[in-house]
Each structure stands twice: as C-alpha cells, then as structure tokens.
Amino acid sequence: RIVYLNGEFLPFDEARVPIMDRGFLFADGIYEVSAILGGRLVDNAAHVARLDRSLGEIGIRNPHDAAEWERLQTELMSRNGVTEGLVYMQVTRGVAERDFAFPPADTAPTVMMFTQAKTVAANPLAEKGARVVTVEDLRWKRRDIKSVALLAQVLAKQQAVEAGVSEAWMVEDGAITEGSSSTAFIIRGRTVVTRPLSTALLPGITRASVLRLAAEADLAIEERLIPVAEALEATEAFYTSASAFVMPVIEIDGRRIGDGVPGPLTRRLRELYLDIAR
Ligand code: PDD
C-alpha cells in the first residue's frame, strides 16, 4: 500500500510523522474525503474547494492549488490500483515545539493522503436501509470547518455502534444538526427537508448535489431545522456523505420510518446520485 506524505509516495510502513506534529498534539489540522467510483473522483472539485476554505478559516496555507491536489489524488489512486473507494487528504499546521499559539510562519504544513479500496456503490446497507439513534451534539461552534478534531463524533458513532445501529444523528436544542459523519435529511410527502447551512454543521458536498438533484426531480425543498419529534414522523429519511452517498434510514431511535424499508423517493435520489457519480 502506497501513501502520500509531504511530497513523496511511500510504502505505508515508511510514512512516519514526528510526535510533535500539531495534528497529533492539538488536532490542529483539516481533512477531506472524496469517493472514487469507476476509477474517477466523485464531486472532487467541491471537496478540494472545501479543503481550501477550511484551511483558510484556521490560517493554514494551502500547499497546493486545486489542479495539483487532483493530480496527486489521481496518482495515488493509480499507484494503489483503487477504482472504487475513498481518498483521504489531511493537512496539519506542521511540526514544532509544543506551544498552543501558531508556530513560526515558515513551518511547513504536514500533507498526507491515503486511499481505501471499498465498495461504495453496491452497498448492501443501502438495500436494507440504515438505523440511526439520536445523541447530544457535544461539538464546538465552528462545525462548518472540516477539522480533524473529531472526538465528539467518535463518541457519537460509538454510541451508535453500541446501540447496534449505523449512524448517530446529533441533536442541539431539540433539532438535528447532522450525522456523526453525514448530513441528515427527512422527507414529508414530496418535500425534502434538511438543516440550512450555518456554522452549526458541515456544508456537505453530497448534500449540495442531492438538493440539486431533488429540485430537478420536482421535489420541494425546505432548508430549516428538523425537530427530533418531526423526524420520527417522517415518511422517509436518509443521510448523505462522500462515503455513504445517499443512505436510506428506516429507523430512528427504535421508531420505524415509513414502511421500515428504504423509501421510494430516497431510492430515486440514490439512483440519481449514482448516475452523476458514475
Ligand atoms: N464525513 N457532516 C459531517 C460531520 C461529516 O463528517 C461529513 C463527511 C458530512 C458529509 O459531507 P460530504 O457529503 O461532503 O462528505 C457531514 C466524511 C465522509 C468522513 O469524515 O469520513
């Protein structure tokens, strides 16, 4: 397995990062995940643009322009022979003596990428439908930044695993913010409902594509808060992410959604998304 680290393509075992890396000490870094399907990157321009935006928000210089990022991603995919799966990118503020404040301006960011071969299109869970539980959203106030500081999401996902379900939907002030690693949606009749963008959640790249596809399919769209009580009454529900695409939800907190099978509009949106991803 070949990974990318600071300008080099290296065997996994040879890619080492010093213990003083600020990603390790402070979670002082940004990441992105793009899907690979049929040997091509999915929605990648938007992922690379969000990486640039996240880096800018925390004052880390983006070491590469968009074209260079894509060139590096593509080379890593081909070196690993991955035609379906994920490519992970991470940039931290680099290696420096431990001090909370930023290190000297000439400190080089640490840049790392790896690929994961994985079935993302023919996912059996998408046929069956996923179950989710709601958990308290314990995160900071800048969730629009795709930071590697993911402890609250780690704890949320572990709660889901311990409940025997696939995802945790995080809740703040009685409304769903998003999934631990996905964007939450419900459907009522022919209306697709999701939370409006703000600093309270990540601006999902898949979210944006799915909203566009929903509008083109003549579904109504409401971007507003979703109270948990309303989600439990939804006719359909799903979540989106680079790794899950459009994942039907059949149960929330043990309550069956719709008929307890993936809903027809959700299935249609998944198909439409797969069509543009392919
Ligand atoms: N997670 N919200 C959160 C908190 C996320 O971590 C993610 C993605 C999303 C969906 O965003 P997008 O559609 O751009 O992937 C929403 C990635 C896949 C991860 O952490 O692995």
UniProtKB/TrEMBL annotation:
Keywords: Amino-acid biosynthesis, Aminotransferase, Branched-chain amino acid biosynthesis, Transferase. Pfam families: Aminotran_4. Gene3D superfamilies: 3.30.470.10, D-amino Acid Aminotransferase, subunit A, domain 2. CDD domains: D-AAT_like. Transmembrane segments: none annotated. Its EC number is 2.6.1.42. InterPro entries: Aminotrans_IV, Aminotransferase-like, BCAT-like_C, BCAT-like_N, Class-IV_PLP-Dep_Aminotrnsfr. GO terms for molecular function: D-alanine-2-oxoglutarate aminotransferase activity. It catalyses: L-isoleucine + 2-oxoglutarate = (S)-3-methyl-2-oxopentanoate + L-glutamate; L-leucine + 2-oxoglutarate = 4-methyl-2-oxopentanoate + L-glutamate; L-valine + 2-oxoglutarate = 3-methyl-2-oxobutanoate + L-glutamate. Belongs to the class-IV pyridoxal-phosphate-dependent aminotransferase family. PANTHER family: AMINO-ACID AMINOTRANSFERASE (PTHR42743), AMINODEOXYCHORISMATE LYASE (PTHR42743:SF11). Acts on leucine, isoleucine and valine. This is Probable branched-chain-amino-acid aminotransferase. It comes from Methylobacterium persicinum.
